[in-house]
Amino acid sequence: MRKVSISGKGGTGKSMLTTMLSTILTEKGYTVLTVDSDDSNPGLYRMLGFEEAPKPLMDLFGGENQILTEIKYRQQKDDKKPTAEWLNKDRFYLEDIPQDYMIRRNGQKLLSVGKITAAFEGCACPMAEVLKIFLDKLELREKEIMIVDMEAGVEHFGRGVDQNIDTALILVEPTVESISLAAKVYFLSRGSKIDNIWAILNKIPSEAVADKVAAELTKRGIRVAGTVRYDPQIAEYALEGKPLTESQAKEDVKQIVEVLLG
Q: How many domains does the chain have?
């Protein structure tokens, strides 16, 4: 488990799980890079306890226009090299990333790909391309883990972002829509050559409901790593914009981490 993605339907709690996993793994002695790749959700940095978000990775890679040019070169199979320094690097490590773009707190590191900030700004294609390049070129050392909080849905699979992910986590809440999307994410993860795929149940009110959701996922061939019970404290943290700290949910995620680390 080195490069981990968290996917699922919007509103299932991907940022919550990302925060909990990052915190727990850091407490276990890992260096954890959390990557905010959601182009709309602004609050992940608050959940992790940071006072402000880092500068977007998009800027480090030359900005939107440079990335669009890079996409055009690739589509045309043009050998012309981009002018942005970071696009020309073959490989880089966490320590190479400038501090403004990768902020640190209590052993955790946070990076943001970029956000849609204005009307008529266009699609999020350049941000997906930046993340794809970053995942391909970043080399992780021993005891380093990257967790990517993906945008809701499955567009990132269509853009090939997940091809350098080795562990896919699918967050599932107890609804038909969430279970159906989980099956699609599982199929697309397999198509992206990801072998280590797990579902994690979230917002579960009872063991009976957990059993029903797990049974539906098992029918679809999806392994379940564990269950996060419904925790009203998480909703309170989210409403007040507080960092996620000790809670019932965190205790549940600790058990899931043990399964994932195997």
A: 1
The 10s digit of each residue's pLDDT in 20-51 is 999 999 999 999 999 999 877 777 888 888 88
According to the model, what pLDDT value does residue 85 have?
A: 78
DSSP code at position 80: P
Domain that holds residue 170: 3-261
Q: Is 26 helix (H, G, I), strand (E, B) or coil?
A: helix
CATH of the domain at 120: 3.40.50.300
Answer for the pair 180, 203: CB distance below 8 angstroms, yes or no. Answer: no
Q: Are 67 and 132 in contact (CB under 8 A)?
A: no
The helix-helix angle for 125-137 and 64-75 (nearest 10°) equals 80
The rounded distance, in Å, linking the Cα atoms of 226 and 66 is 42
Q: What is the DSSP letter of 58?
A: H
Q: What pTM did the predictor assign?
A: 0.90
Encoded tokens for 73: 């070169």
Query: 133, 148, 156, 132: which is closest to 33 by C-alpha?
Result: 148
The answer to whether 163 and 132 are in contact (CB under 8 A) is yes
Q: What is the pLDDT of residues 127-164, one digit of tens each?
A: 888 899 899 999 999 999 999 999 888 889 988 889 99
Q: How far apart are CA 18 and CA 5, in angstroms?
A: 9
In Å, how far from its chain's centre is CA 89?
Answer: 23
